[in-house]
Write a structure and sequence with these properties.
Length: 553
C-alpha cells in the first residue's frame, strides 16, 4: 500500500507527453496558420479526410461514395485511408478551427496519445510509474511514430494498439466478465478499424501469433485461460465485422489498391535500419545519411532504429524475466515481427539478398497490401515493455536512471534539422474565404496539375467542400482511380505538351469543368496557362491563385 501511495498520479505521464509533443512540434506551428505537420503530398489527404466526414454527415451526403472527387465519375473512399473515426473524434475541433488546424493538432498529439496508452499498459505489467513512463516514451516517440509524422495520420494514431493489448490482458486475467469484455473489444477494435484498417489487419495478424505462441509454451491452466479469452475475442471480432460491414462491402468491390509485390519489397525494413539512425534522430542521424539513403523504404517508412541503450535495457529485461510466460511470448513474437518486417527478401544496405518468409504472404489478398516496414510499430511496443520490466526491477537505481536517460537521448528527434513542419503555400484566396466571390457551388473546379502533384485536396477542404473537383489524390500513385485509364492522365498530372490542347479541351468539357485553378509560382503553371489560353480560356489572378474560365462564360 505504501509503495502505491508514493507513486505519482497516473495523469502526470500523459501530461508530460502532451507538453513534450507541444514543445517539439506544436511550437513550430505558432504564427504559421498555413503550415502543416509533415511534408510532400500525403498530408493533404488527411486534412481533406478530417474535414470530409463531418461535412458529409452534417449535410446528409454519402460519405463513402462521393462525387466531390474525380467528378463526375466519383470515388469510393472505402479504397482509401481516410481515417473516418479520427475525423469524427476531431469533429468539434474541426468545426472551430478548420480541417488543416485540426489535422495539425491530431498529428502533434500523435506521440503523446501513443505514449500515454503504452504507459498504461506498461504500468499494468510493472506496477511502477517511472519505468512505465520511460516505456511509454520509447513507444510513443519511437522512430516509427516520428517517421510517420511525415504525413500519415492513420499510422501515427496507433494508441489503440497498446489499448487493445491492455484490454486483452485484463480479459485474460479474469478482471472483466465475458459480456463486458466482448463489448469493450467490439468498441476498441471497431475504433481501430475506422482509424486504420491496415493497422487493424496487422494487429490481428501479430496478435494471433502471440496467442498461438502463448498456447504452445503455456501450461494447461494458461491454455484454459487462453481458450476463454479467444472465445471473447472471436465474439469481439464478429461484432466488429458487423459494424464494419458497410465499409467492407465497399472495400471489396472491384477497383481497390492492387496487390503489387514491388510495394512490399520496396517498403520493407533494411537490416541496417535497426541499428543505424535516420536523419531525423538527433544523435548521430546526420552522420549516416549516406547509409540510410540506400534504404528502399525511404525516410518516412524506413526507420526501425533500436538505439544501443534501448537494446541493452530490453535484453536485460528479457534476461531478468526470462522464466515468465509473458516475456517468452513477447520475445518470440518480436522475432516474428522483425523477420516479417524484412518483406519478401532481406535487404542489407539497400541490396536485396536472401528470400524471407513474408514472401509467402505478400501475394495474398489483404495481407499482400500490408507494407512490411510498418510492422516495426509492434517491435517498438514489445521492446518498450521489456525496457519497463527491467527498469522496474533494477537493483541499482542510478544505473537504471542513467540507462533510461541514454535510451531517450539516443532516440531524441533532430528538431533543429528535420522538416517536421512545412509551409503549405495555402493562398489567401482560400485562407481568407475570398474564394466565395469567384467560385460558386455550381462550379466544377480542376486544380492543375491533378493528383499528388497539386494542392487540390487541401484547397477543397479549406473551401469547405463547396464545389466538386475533377481529380484528387487519396490513393498511392500506382493504384487505380477513375481518371487513370485516360491517356491524358500523365499530362494532367504534370507538365502538358503544347500539342495537347484539343485533348485537354475535350477532357475539360467532358468532365464538366467550369474553372481551372493554378497556384501562382507553380512550376507547371506557365505551361498550363499558355495551353488553356490557346483553347480559349481567360485568366484572372485572385488571392494568389490563377483562375481560368472558358472565354464564353
Amino acid at each position: 500500500m505504501s509503495t502505491r501511495l508514493t507513486q505519482p498520479p497516473t495523469i502526470i505521464a500523459p501530461a508530460l507527453y502532451v507538453v513534450a509533443s507541444f514543445l517539439m512540434f506544436g511550437t513550430q506551428l505558432l504564427g504559421h496558420h498555413d503550415w502543416i505537420v509533415g511534408f510532400g503530398a500525403d498530408p493533404q489527404i488527411f486534412v481533406w479526410a478530417v474535414g470530409w466526414w463531418p461535412h458529409a454527415i452534417a449535410h446528409d451526403l454519402d460519405p463513402v461514395n462521393t462525387q466531390f472527387l474525380y467528378y463526375p465519375d466519383g470515388f469510393d473512399l472505402a479504397h482509401a485511408a481516410t481515417v473516418p473515426a479520427a475525423a469524427i473524434l476531431l469533429w468539434p475541433l474541426t468545426a472551430v478551427i478548420g480541417p488543416l488546424s485540426a489535422y495539425n493538432v491530431a498529428m502533434t498529439l500523435s506521440s503523446a496519445l501513443a505514449a500515454s496508452f503504452a504507459f498504461l499498459l506498461c504500468r499494468r505489467l510493472t506496477a511502477s510509474f517511472w519505468p512505465s513512463a520511460v516505456g511509454g516514451w520509447l513507444f510513443g516517440f519511437s522512430p516509427y511514430v516520428l517517421g510517420e509524422m511525415g504525413g500519415h495520420l492513420h499510422l501515427t494514431w496507433v494508441f489503440m494498439v497498446p489499448a487493445i493489448v491492455h484490454l486483452a490482458l485484463r480479459g485474460h486475467d479474469g478482471e472483466l466478465s465475458r459480456g463486458r469484455l466482448v463489448v469493450l473489444l467490439i468498441l476498441a477494435l471497431t475504433l481501430q478499424f475506422y482509424i486504420s484498417a491496415e493497422v487493424f489487419v496487422s494487429l490481428t495478424l501479430f496478435g494471433a501469433v502471440a496467442i498461438v505462441v502463448a498456447y504452445a509454451v503455456g501450461d494447461q491452466a494458461e491454455r484454459s485461460r487462453l481458450r476463454e479469452m479467444s472465445v471473447a475475442l472471436g465474439w469481439g471480432y464478429l461484432g466488429t465485422v458487423l459494424l464494419a460491414a458497410p465499409y467492407l462491402y465497399q472495400a471489396f468491390q472491384p477497383g481497390q489498391v492492387p496487390v503489387l509485390l514491388s510495394r512490399s519489397e520496396i517498403v520493407s525494413a533494411d537490416l541496417l535500419a535497426y541499428v543505424v539512425p535516420e536523419p531525423f534522430t538527433q544523435l548521430g542521424g546526420s552522420a549516416f545519411g549516406g547509409t540510410t539513403a540506400a534504404f528502399t523504404a525511404g525516410t518516412v517508412e524506413g526507420s526501425a532504429y533500436l538505439a544501443p541503450p534501448v537494446i541493452l535495457i530490453a535484453a536485460l529485461g528479457v534476461w531478468r524475466c526470462r522464466r515468465t510466460l509473458g516475456v517468452k511470448v513477447g520475445l518470440i513474437t518480436l522475432a516474428v515481427v522483425v523477420v516479417c518486417s524484412f518483406g519478401g527478401h532481406l535487404h542489407v544496405d539497400g541490396h536485396s539478398t536472401v528470400p524471407m518468409p513474408w514472401a509467402a504472404f505478400s501475394r495474398l489478398p489483404v495481407l499482400g497490401l500490408l507494407l512490411p516496414a510498418r510492422f516495426i510499430d509492434y517491435a517498438f511496443l514489445i521492446v518498450a515493455i521489456f525496457v519497463a520490466l527491467w527498469l522496474a526491477r533494477a537493483r541499482n537505481r542510478l544505473v537504471a536512471a542513467t540507462l533510461a536517460a541514454l535510451a531517450v537521448a539516443f532516440t531524441w528527434p533532430a528538431l533543429d534539422s528535420w522538416a517536421w513542419v512545412t509551409p503549405t503555400g495555402l493562398p489567401p484566396l482560400f485562407a481568407t474565404g475570398a474564394y466565395r466571390r469567384y467560385i460558386s457551388p455550381r462550379d466544377v473546379a480542376i486544380v492543375l496539375p491533378i493528383g499528388n502533384a497539386g494542392p487540390a485536396m487541401l484547397w477543397q477542404a479549406e473551401a469547405g467542400y463547396e464545389f466538386p473537383i475533377a481529380g484528387g489524390y487519396v490513393l498511392p500513385p500506382e493504384a487505380p482511380n477513375p481518371y487513370k485509364s485516360n491517356p491524358l492522365y500523365d499530362q494532367l498530372s504534370s507538365t502538358p505538351a503544347p500539342q495537347a490542347g484539343p485533348a485537354v479541351a475535350y477532357f475539360l468539357a467532358h468532365h464538366g469543368v467550369t474553372v481551372a485553378l493554378l497556384p501562382l509560382g507553380g512550376a507547371d503553371t506557365p505551361a498550363w496557362q499558355a495551353l488553356l489560353q490557346r483553347i480559349g480560356w481567360r485568366a484572372e489572378v485572385h488571392g494568389g491563385v490563377l483562375l481560368m474560365r472558358p472565354a464564353r462564360t
